[in-house]
Amino acid sequence: MDQSEIDALLAGGGKTPKKPKAAAKAPVADPVPAPPAAPVQAEPHKDGSGHVISELDTVTSVTERESNKVMDQLDQISQLVARQQQLVTEMMRHEGAQSQGVQKAIHEVMSASKEIQDKVFEAMDLMQFQDITRQKLERIVHHLRQIHDYIVDLLGTGLKSDAERPSISHTIAQTGTTPDENKAHADAVIEAFKSQKKG
Amino acid sequence: MKILIVDDSSTMRRIIINTLSRIGYTDVVEGENGKSGLEKLGQGGVEMIITDWNMPEMDGLEFVKTVRGQNAGIPILMVTTNAAKEDIVEALQAGVNNYVVKPFTPETLKEKIESLLG
User: Fold this and answer.
1) How much is the ipTM here?
2) Which residues of chain A register pLDDT less than 50?
3) If DSSP codes are grouped into helix, strand and coil, which group holds residue B58?
4) A113 close to A88: Cβ distance less than 8 angstroms
């Protein structure tokens, strides 16, 4: 998150943004510099509810963008590992590498390389948490809107919240973060539906 | 085989595309909501659809109903956070062939795709 985003998040809060800790560290060379990030601006708000909602919208935009940066890095690692595997395969055919000891070492390198590739894919799959967290935040925003509008109705003063995103999850309570934790449940419902349809 | 992926989360689309490429499906088109999904479908060649449910402009359920009005046979897999029994039943009634709850493993996506194509 850069300073403009921190400023956007704090807009209207009346607090001076603290310097991010990472800024104090010595810069680390990035082999592939990321393109400059477009600042994410919080939308103007008419009331307290709009402010909270725009802050949460900003948080979800930022996390999605940052998640894509992590995915870019993982893609690059994956490509580098694939290149390494290609080079090692070529090395195996070299006449100087035909001794038993060298071949054994090469096989170990290939095996470690495959493990890295698997871990990279696993890390990519785990990035699903971003989408799930976003939808959980949308659910919180939905409840905040309801509370806000209820108070406006009750007091007979103030502005109601802006139109809501048209489709948000009905309930996120059953959605966890462990891959496939709802698979057995979903499969059972599908099977029951299909059996009922046949019958 | 050309697969259409409809999801408003670019991260999620990347994850699905990565998983598909690992199991041999590399011909992919993307839509960020039901409306753009219909546009991509209209361009032709799509043989399977993987769609999210909760999306702006046109959600996955409306998208599935619209697709089913035009194309009864195309396999549709819904991949969503909606895990409630009534949601799964509603999606199946709308015309979804199979259903995956996020977060999923690549094995599950592979299993569901193969069962739809099998």
Assistant:
1) 0.83
2) 6, 9-10, 12-32, 39-47
3) coil
4) yes
**In the structure encoding, which two tokens stand for residue A75, read together?**
């893609």
- Within its chain, how far is the Cα of A53 from the centroid? 19
d(CA A139, CA B87): 16
What is the pLDDT, as a whole number, of residue A166? 54
Using a CB–CB cut-off of 8 Å, the residues of A that contact B are 64, 67-68, 71, 121, 124-132, 134-135, 138, 165-172, 174-180, 182-183, 185-186, 189-190, 193
Token pair for A116: 């890295």
Output the DSSP codes for A93-117: HSGGG-SHHHHHHHHHHHHHHHHHH
CA dist A88 and A111 (Å) reads: 11
Among the partner residues A124, A177, A189, nearest to B18 by beta-carbon distance: A124
Mean pLDDT over the full length of chain A? 75
Q: Coil, helix or strand for B116?
A: helix
- pTM for the predicted model, two decimal places: 0.75
- In the DSSP assignment, the letter for residue B95 is T
